[in-house]
Model the fold of this input.
Amino acid sequence: MVIVLEKNVADKQIENIIKHLEDFGFAVHKSTGVEQIVLGAIGVKPDFDTRNVKIIDGVAEVYRITEPYKLASRSFQKENTVITIKGIPIGGNEVMMMAGPCSIESEEQIFTLAEIVAKSGAKILRGGAFKPRTSPYAFQGMGEEGLKLIRKAADAYNLLVITEVMEIAQIDLIGKYTDIYQIGARNMQNFSLLKELGKTNIPIMLKRGLSATIEEWLMSAEYILSSGNRQVIMCERGIRTFETATRNTFDLSSIPVLQKKSHLPVAADPSHATGLRDKVLPMARAAVAAGADALMVEVHHQPEKALSDGPQALLPEQFMELMKQIRLIAEVIGRKIA
Done:
């Protein structure tokens, strides 16, 4: 249920409205917009009479949210959510670039790539320290040593860090080094992990599951939001279909669909979506044109020696060309790349 408050509502009136809602058994979430304050009353009460709320002093309008995802819905918040991390906004007019290797492999490797990422104008360094691999025999990441290296490299070049968290036991450890938690496709419906991450105050990028519908994806975001963390970035990374020409099928249409249904920022990962280096540039261009708020791409200066996902990693010169091309596309649609 959404409760729209009167424009000049007093703080004491807001407190009184929230108290009434809590007495009715609702969990209350407050959203302060440009012009009005909106309260989200969360709780399964199909027979509840909304007139009980409409009569409270300071309430302008009350209506039910029909979508199963409440806090992620445009009905709850009309304005786009902009997540600002150390002065870097995600979800605003600037399209943010996240780039780096699939896995942190050595100090030399991550520092080399951090320099390339910074020179391109990108603001966020990606790299995995814990790697969920299909094969138990594949490289599983450097663990905390890798986290120390990516943090050191990012700080040296004034970059933010995004890295993947795979299980509850890793949350505190990774939180010491990262600026953004990444939840991989395999963990999109790991609800215990989502709820625990929802208790943190570190932004979270939630990748779409391998076969997840958009509604299932938004419901996963709802687990995080309802636990208290409002800093969620959705990331389209391709879904599994019958097609085998690429690693996954890149669902570009999910970007405008999400932006209509939800206020959360939307990122795109053309590297994992296609799995092929020569497909990353055209799909990245398309994602920016479709309205993505951020892009995540893999870059490696020696992809033939990469310990994971070498075939989809851009060479440095290809990455620089990508940045040049998407800046032009962003300008055409009234945005810019940062």
Summary: The radius of gyration is 21 Å.
